[in-house]
Amino acid sequence: MMEIFTSLLTSGISLATPLLLAALGEIIIEKSGIINIALEGMMLVAAFFAMYVALISGSPILGLVAGVFSALLSAAIFALFCVGAQADQIITGAGLNIFALGLTGVLLRRIFGLTGATITAPTFTILPVPFLQKLPIIGPALFTQNALVYLALLLIPITWLLLTRTRLGLHLRAVGENPAAVDAAGLPVQRLRFAAVLIGGSYCGLAGAYLSIAQANTFIEGMTAGRGFIALAIVIFAGWRPFAAAAVALLFGVASALQFQFQAFGLKVPYQFFLMLPYILTIVVAAFFRHRIQAPAAMAKSYFREG
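Below the sequence we write its predicted C-alpha cells.
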C-alpha cells in the first residue's frame, strides 16, 4: 500500500510541475492586471523549440534556453498587443493559442515529416538528493526527480518573495489594483505590465520545455492538452497565492496520476472516464470558486491615461 501511495505521489509531482510553473507565471501576470489565456500557446511553442534545439544540439540545457526564449518572444508579442496597443486580452490570448497550435503543427510536419511521437530528444535525467531521498514516503517522491522539478519547487518561495517583499512586486500589485494611482505616483504603468507579462512568459517557457525534454522526451502536436487552462483554474482556486498554487497544482497532478493507477487496477470502466478526471476537476474549480475569491481589481482592464 505504501509503495502504491509513493508511486502515486511521485507521478503526481511530475505531472503537477508544468501546471505549477504556468500557474506561478500567471499569478505574476494577473497581479499586474493582465489576464493571459495564451498560457497554452506559450507552453506549446516552448515545448516544440526546446525539443528541436535539444535534438540538434544534443543538450537539454540548450533546449531549455530555446524553450524559454521562444516563450518570451510569444509573451512579448502578447504584451505588444494587449499592453502597448490596448487590444482585448481575451481575444489576443485566444488568437495566440490558435497561432501556436498551427505553427508547431506545420513545423513538426515540415521538419520531421511526421505527427506521431517518434522523435526522441535528450532529456533531463533523474537527480536523487542524497540522504533526503531515503525519507519515508515523501523521500522517493519528492527528492528523486529531475532538475526542472527542483527548480519549480524553488520558484514557489522566489515568486512569493518577488510579489510580497520587493519593490517591483509592490508596484506590480499596485498596478493590478489601481493603475491610475500608480500613474499619478509617476510610475510607468505600461512598462510594469509589460515586465510582468515577460516574467510570466519565462515561467511558461520552463513549463513547456519540461513537457518535451523532461517528461515526454518528445514532441506531439497539441501536447499541452489544455494544461494552460488548468493553470488558469489553479490561479483562481489558489487565490493568486504561490504556495496555495503549489498545493492545488499537486492536487491536479495527483488527479491526473490516478487515471493511470485506476487503469492499472483493471477496473471495468472505460479509460476515457479516467482521462476526464483532471478536466472535470478544472470545471468544478472554475464553477464553484470563481465568485468566492477576490481577483485584482483592475484585471483584464486596459489603462488609458486621462487627457
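The chain has twelve helices and two strands.
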